[in-house]
Specification:
heterodimer; A: 101 residues; B: mainly alpha; Four Helix Bundle (Hemerythrin (Met), subunit A)
Chain lengths: 101, 215
C-alpha cells in the first residue's frame, strides 16, 4: 500500500511540474516530466521488473519498434530543407491563365 | 500468485506458475502491439507539430486545460486504486478486489463523463474539422490538423477506457463469487496491466494535446 501511495504522490507532483513548466514556457521540461510519469507507471504500478523475463523482453521489443516507427517516420520532415531557386521569380500562374483565356 | 505444483498432464503448461507467467507475458505482448497502434498517432503529432507549428499551437491553446488536468488526476488516482485491487487479489481478499475495482471503474467513468462535457463544448464551438471549422486565418489548416488528431486520439483512448471499465467490472463479478485466492489472482493482475497502460497512454496524450505549444 505504501508503494502505491508513493507512486501516486510522485505522479501528482510530476503533473504539477508539467503544469508549472507549461506556464513557464519550458516545453522540454514538460516532455521530461511526461517520460518520468510513464516510468513511474511501468515500474511502480505495472511492476515490470517483478514480472516474468518474457514480459520484459516483450516490453523492450515494443519500445524498440516504437523507436524505429517514430525515428524513420519523422526523419524526412526533420531533415528536409527548402532551398530557394536562384534566378528571376517565376511568373504568376494565375495571372497567366487570365491573360490566356 | 501461484505455487509450483504440477498441472494436469493434458494442460499445455508445466506448472501453475508457468500458466500464470504466460498470461502476464501474453498481456505484455498485446500491450507492445497497442504501443505501436498509438505510436502511429504520436508520429502524426511529432511531424505536424513541427511542420505546421503555428496552426498546431493555435489548436493546443483552444483545448480546455482545466478539464484536461482534472482528468489526468482522476486517471492517475484510478490507476492507483486499481493497483490496490491487484494487491488485494494477491492476498486473496476478494472483498478488497470488489471495493477497489469498483472505485477504479467509477473514476474511469468520471473521466469519460468529463471528456464528454469537453467534447460537447468543442462541438458547440465548431472545433470539429470541417466546412464550419471555427478557427480562421493562415494557420487554420494546421489547427484543423490538430483537432483531427485530438478527436481521433481521444476517441481511441476513450474506447480503450470503455473496454478497461468492462474488464474491471468482469473482475469484480468474479471476485464477488470468491474466485480469487493467494494461489491464483491472474485475471486481476492482467486487467491491472491493461488499465495502467490506458493510464500511461493518457500521460503522453495530455502534454501533446494540452501543454506543449500552449505558451
Amino acid at each position: 500500500m505504501g508503494r502505491i501511495a508513493i507512486c501516486w504522490g510522485m505522479l501528482v507532483l510530476l503533473l504539477a511540474a508539467e503544469l508549472a513548466a507549461t506556464w513557464a514556457g519550458y516545453g522540454i521540461a514538460v516532455c521530461v516530466a511526461a517520460v518520468l510519469m510513464v516510468l513511474v507507471i511501468v515500474l511502480g504500478f505495472m511492476q515490470i521488473l517483478r514480472g516474468p523475463k518474457l514480459a520484459v523482453i516483450f516490453a523492450l521489443g515494443g519500445l524498440f519498434w516504437l523507436t524505429i516507427l517514430l525515428a524513420l517516420g519523422s526523419l524526412d520532415s526533420f531533415t528536409r530543407t527548402t532551398v530557394p531557386v536562384p534566378g528571376p521569380a517565376l511568373p504568376d500562374r494565375a495571372a497567366g491563365l487570365q491573360e490566356g483565356g | 500468485m501461484s505455487d509450483g505444483s504440477v498441472l494436469d498432464h493434458h494442460s499445455p503448461y508445466e506448472t501453475p506458475l508457468h500458466r500464470d507467467e504466460s498470461a502476464i507475458a501474453g498481456m505484455w505482448l498485446f500491450l507492445a502491439s497497442e504501443a505501436l497502434l498509438f505510436g502511429g498517432l504520436f508520429l502524426v503529432c511529432l511531424v505536424y507539430s513541427q511542420t505546421r507549428a503555428a496552426g498546431w499551437a493555435a489548436g493546443v491553446r483552444h483545448t480546455d486545460l482545466t478539464i484536461g488536468a482534472v482528468n489526468t488526476l482522476v486517471l492517475i488516482t484510478s490507476s492507483a486504486v486499481y493497483t490496490m485491487a491487484v494487491a488485494a487479489g494477491q492476498r486473496g481478499d476478494n472483498r478488497g478486489v470488489v471495493r477497489f475495482g469498483l472505485g477504479a471503474a467509477v473514476l474511469g467513468m468520471a473521466f469519460l463523463a468529463l471528456k464528454g462535457v469537453e467534447w460537447g463544448q468543442e462541438f458547440r464551438e465548431s472545433l470539429f474539422p470541417g466546412p464550419h471549422f471555427a478557427l480562421h486565418g493562415p494557420d487554420s489548416g494546421g489547427a484543423a490538423l490538430f483537432y483531427s488528431f485530438y478527436f481521433l486520439a481521444t476517441f481511441l483512448h476513450g474506447m480503450h477506457m470503455v473496454v478497461g471499465i468492462g474488464l474491471i467490472l468482469w473482475v469484480c463479478r468474479k471476485a464477488r463469487h470468491g474466485a480469487f485466492g493467494p494461489a491464483w489472482s491472474t485475471p486481476v493482475d492482467v486487467v491491472g496491466l491493461y488499465w495502467s497502460f490506458v493510464d500511461l497512454v493518457w500521460m503522453l496524450l495530455f502534454p501533446l494535446l494540452y501543454l506543449i505549444g500552449r505558451r
